[in-house]
Amino acid sequence: MKSLVFVHGYLGGGLQWADQVEVFSEYFRVITPNLPGFGDNRAMTTPETIRGLAQYVLDELDRLEVDRFHLVGHSMGGMIVQEMVALAPERVDKLVLYGTGPVGIMPGRFETIGESRRGVKAKGVEETGRRIAATWFQHGKSAEGYAVCAELAVKASLQAALAGLTAMEAWSGVAALPKIESSTLVLWGDGDRAYQWSQPEQLWRGIEGAHLAVIPGCSHAVHLEKPHLFNAMLLDFLGTV
Questions:
Q1: What angle do CA 190, 195, 196 make, to 5 degrees?
Q2: Which of 22, 96, 206, 221 has the least CB density, counted as fewest CB within 10 Å?
């Protein structure tokens, strides 16, 4: 059975993919790792580079004896999976870059990386995490999926919250885009407040043969806001074998 790996983003965790685990386990071995410092891995030290996080996921897949796989990355996880492709291109079959972009300093983000860092330091992970998680939904804290994201966000350690921002701030994958040979789907919610259109557009135009799916009426957490559309798009792109 082919493996399908979902990599979460900043202040996320493997549990955010519960609906996808249920749907896709019929067709794939689904793997949803927690990045170090996040979710159930809160006690671990978080690397301060996207490459370090990418190597962590690859090492976890080695531990699970997973050689080749389809790969989905969300938000900061989308940066991580781009770096995974750069490190081990022969291992990645199909690639989904979801709610993400090729540069860590996100133009037009709801707030700058520096503002997020100051928030974490001044108000702590819990308050800042809940506030940031609300931006991921069209309807903010009243959205159905908000509670899941908020509960995961507050699990992050202070070191992880700061290290993730540092990792994103220093990263760019622009130069590597023409080298990506995996069949790629770029998926984006048209109301995303973290990644403005210029980011997914750059992925779509920069990766040869990339496909584009724009989901209307969604912000940053399409897989929680409109899971049926999200899952259908992925199934159509990945196939079931």
A1: 60
A2: 22
Helix (H) or strand (E) holding 30: strand 29-31
pLDDT at 86 over 90: yes
The string of pLDDT tens digits covering residues 19-38 is: 999 999 999 999 999 999 99
Mean pLDDT of the chain: 97
Count of C-beta atoms within a 10 Å radius of residue 169: 16
- What's the CA gap between 7 and 29, in Å, rounded? 14
In terms of Cβ atoms closer than 10 Å to its own Cβ (0-12, 13-18, 19+), residue 107 is exposed
Model confidence band, residue 241 (pLDDT cutoffs 50, 70, 90): low
Kind of pairing between the strands at 183-189 and 92-98: parallel
Q: Domain 3-238: give its CATH architecture.
A: 3-Layer(aba) Sandwich (3.40)
Are the CB atoms for 33 and 59 separated by under 8 Å? no
